[in-house]
Design brief:
elongated; 0% strand; 4 helices
């Protein structure tokens, strides 16, 4: 497992643990479980972009395979990291 995959998995686990601890005091178990499910569903897209960026890179660009398809893997990975870190950035700088 590459460093990028391991760090992204660590970030997702951190999000889940932080969500359970921060919302568990104010809400019941059903609401917390529903929130965890929603969070996991949200995290599937960024994790997919980070973990499979080289495979998704050639399909960027409205179904056409670009001339330099391997160059798009880094962009897909970057966008996955942006989506993954967006909740943390919003929490830190949002108010």
């Amino acid at each position: 497992m590459s460093k990028s995959k391991l760090i992204s998995l660590f970030v997702v686990v951190f999000y889940l643990i932080a969500f359970v601890f921060l919302s568990g005091r104010n809400h019941g178990p059903k609401e917390v479980l529903l929130g965890v499910v929603v969070l996991v569903i949200y995290m599937l897209l960024p994790l997919g972009c980070i973990w499979f960026s080289d495979g998704l890179g050639p399909f960027w660009g409205r179904g056409r395979i670009p001339e330099h398809a391997s160059d798009w893997g880094g962009f897909v990975s970057f966008m996955g990291w942006l989506l993954l870190l967006l909740p943390m950035l919003r929490f830190l700088f949002g108010k």
